[in-house]
Design brief:
Blueprint (H helix, E strand, L loop, with lengths): L2 E2 L4 E6 L3 E2 L8 E11 L24 E4 L1 H8 L7 E2 L18 E9 L1 H14 L8 E2 L6
Length: 142
């Protein structure tokens, strides 16, 4: 089984920052994935001295919750949006220790209005269990 998906932008937004995608012309935002938690060490999560042993604890690092519905509700189908990254925005997300700062990781792309139907159908197909089928989406920059 091979599934290839083209993604326009994948980025991390730390607690307190704003996710502010903007598309040009008549293009609109399509949110492909969104996770809120502490997925990995990086710009938003640093390893503090003395906490190295905590990296093995899945509620300290590697914990996240799918928040695609929240981000899509605010941004998908619009040319721009703003979503503040904080615990209030993602209420009831408790995949990590509550005392830890979490961040948002989002994958989205800007598409023309004509592609919305195609992408909706493709997403519907890709979210169903694949058996022996192969799905490939080839991306072309314009």
């Amino acid at each position: 089984m091979l599934v290839t998906v083209c993604v326009g932008v994948v980025a991390e937004y730390c607690n307190g920052e704003a996710f502010q995608p903007r598309c040009t012309g008549s293009d609109v935002i399509v949110t492909l994935s969104a996770r809120y938690g502490r997925m990995k060490v990086g710009r938003c999560v640093e390893v503090e001295p003395g906490f190295e042993s905590m990296l093995e604890d899945p509620r300290y690092l590697g914990c996240s919750t799918d928040v695609l519905d929240v981000v899509s509700r605010h941004c998908s189908g619009r040319s721009e949006c703003q979503l503040r990254v904080n615990d209030q925005t993602f209420d009831n997300v408790n995949s990590c220790y509550t005392s830890m700062k979490m961040y948002l990781e989002v994958a989205y792309m800007c598409v023309s209005g004509e592609l919305i139907l195609f992408l909706t159908l493709l997403f519907s197909f890709l979210t169903k269990p694949l058996t022996t089928s192969t799905a490939t989406l080839v991306c072309k920059s314009t």
